[in-house]
Amino acid sequence: MKIRTALAATTAILLAGVASAETMKIGITQNNVGVDSYQTTYEKAFIAAADANDAVETVVLDAGGDVARQIAQMEDLIQQEVDAIIIWPTNGEAVIPAVRKAHKAGIPVIVTNSNIAEQGFDFVKSFSGPDNITQGARSAEIMCDKFKDMGIENEAKVVHITGQPGYTTAIERAKGFEDRLPEVCPDVTIIDTQPGDWNREKSQQVMEAFLVKYDDIDGVYAGDDNMGVGALNAAKAAGRDGIIFVGATNFAVGYEAMAAGEYWGSIYQSPVDDAEAALQTAIDILSGKDVPFLNYFDTPKITQDNMGDFTKPVF
Amino acid sequence: MAALSKAQIGPILAKQGILIAFAVFMIAFTIASPKFLSVDNVFSVVRSSAILGVMALGVTFVVISGNLDLSVGSMMSFSTIVVLDLHDKIGPFLAIPAMFAMTLALGAIIGFLVGYLRLNSLIVTLGMLSAIHGLTLTYSGGQNMDIADKEGTWFSVFGQGTALGIPVPILIFAALAAFLGLVLGKTAFGRKIYAVGGNDTAATFSGVRRARTVFNCYLISAACVATAGLIQASRSLGSQNTVGQGLELEVLAAVILGGASLLGGSGTIFKTVIGVLILGFIQNGLLLLGLQFYVQFVVTWVIIILAVWLDIAAKRGKLWSPIA
């Protein structure tokens, strides 16, 4: 039985390999296009990158945030016998059976943007996406460097606004930041941590409470720029100047606030890079190249000092 | 509580159980955190509760009429996105009435389906929740909406301005609460809403036009949502498509916490306001206490259950149910 499965899988891979000599048919099922600007831009960039490559034919699907729909889409793609499937998981746990099914059918699966849970790793060829722990660590470095410039690295107090509790991205960024900050700036204290749920308005409310509670806040780290700008709005309304704001996933609003000198830094994560990296990972796997299991694309630091090197995010 | 000279204070307590619960929490939080009752903090809580509060005023009408409105969260996202988009296209003077008209049209659709076609309001508004979300995303193309010139617009006055030292969102909330409180408590239209929610067959036979009354309640709810969207848009001058997501349940919780019955026929604007304030101050108080946020979800629930229990215990004059 096992041998038969293995044979079937090998044959399928071989067939896929033969097919790829002409065109590679790559299917993608996305999480929830249109729910935010990042995902919208990602889809456009993915389609553009695929169109630009004659060797690639794509089937682009969107699960609309619905796990059941995503599983059905995985099954459709398996039926259509695509050469590779890229999945942006709606849920890191629930999609594993569908991923396993594709794996058993001999179709290599590439996970994009946010990884699936560890017990599904055996069925996945590669994860292509940002390294959120490194992002959190880099945000800590940006903030620490700025404190050193200002000469307050021995006393500065920081509040931390995280993404939605329970989300992998939120947990990893928070971990990266909280682990790295004491390494680079051991005397800076994180005085409070509360979730802003990736929501600008919620983050603004949290920051308002922080401003009431603490008379002395030197820095704010927010899990993304949307929340960072919400916190900035709260500080501006309360007339509290001189706070250093650092975020992640540089949004257009964050970029503008940086240009205005109100927001110090962030992490530049382009949905275009994200989409192109996912497609390239799939192509490399189908061409038989060696691809690392965790295939991160680079997400550099951006601050008021070097923002000229980056174009303004379109989202 | 019930043991203290019940004869005199019983009737007062019975009417104001939720107010007593509110006072108890306020005192407890003030003891726990000295900054809780500072002017800055109170303004900040009421200002951020104003958005939820304005929506709750409208939903109170709908709930008293014996119906539900679960679409207010996504409708608020819609209003916010539309007014921000139109602000840069046709200017704030036209953008505000245009946004109100579009939001009222959505309210009219719901009012028609629930009022005149007598469809179940839970199904209609649950469906509208996702339909309006889709509409918002289609309208915006999934992009965040931001006003280009944030410094140079007077539009920020609704969310960020102050008058007589009081933040404008609070003034809007208070004025609207006073006005709608009068409409509900002192007019014939208000009495018809209670009649329809209490017993719509009896109301119909007494000559109340049920369909029209329900329709008007949804229009009022939509107008409140549009006002909330205006405050929201003006407060941050930019927004995600999902800004109102999940608010429908918080709004409903505030209305029910205030003592309105899900079965219709009872509730007041004043008590809804208290319900809104309790939720706002709980959230803020737990933040000030610095409780870990995973714990906050649980503690919030405990406090809400305590409030509901105090309210009911005061009404029946006993801590335990007499027939338990």
UniProtKB/TrEMBL annotation, chain A:
Pfam families hit by this protein: Peripla_BP_4
Record-linked InterPro entries: Peripla_BP_I, SBP_2_dom
Signal found in the keyword field: yes
Family: Belongs to the bacterial solute-binding protein 2 family.
UniProt entry tagged with the keyword Zinc-finger: no
Protein name in the entry: Monosaccharide ABC transporter substrate-binding protein, CUT2 family
Gene Ontology cellular component terms for the protein in this record: cell envelope
Compartmental location: Cell envelope
Major place of residence: other
SUPFAM superfamilies: Periplasmic binding protein-like I
One GO MF term attached to the UniProt entry: carbohydrate binding
Signal peptide range in chain numbering: 1-21
Keywords tagged on the record: Signal
Start and end residues of each Periplasmic binding protein domain: 31-290
TrEMBL record, chain B:
InterPro entries: ABC_transp_permease
Transmembrane segments: 12-32, 44-63, 93-115, 122-142, 162-184, 213-231, 251-279, 286-310
Protein's membrane topology: Multi-pass membrane protein
Pfam families: BPD_transp_2
Localization per Swiss-Prot or TrEMBL: Cell membrane
Predominant subcellular localization, coarse grouping: membrane
Record keywords: Cell inner membrane, Cell membrane, Membrane, Transmembrane, Transmembrane helix, Transport
Top-level taxon in the UniProt lineage: Bacteria
GO molecular function: transmembrane transporter activity
Keyword Cell membrane: yes
Any one of the GO CC terms: plasma membrane
Name the UniProt record assigns to this protein: Monosaccharide ABC transporter membrane protein, CUT2 family
Lineage: Bacteria, Pseudomonadati, Pseudomonadota, Alphaproteobacteria, Rhodobacterales
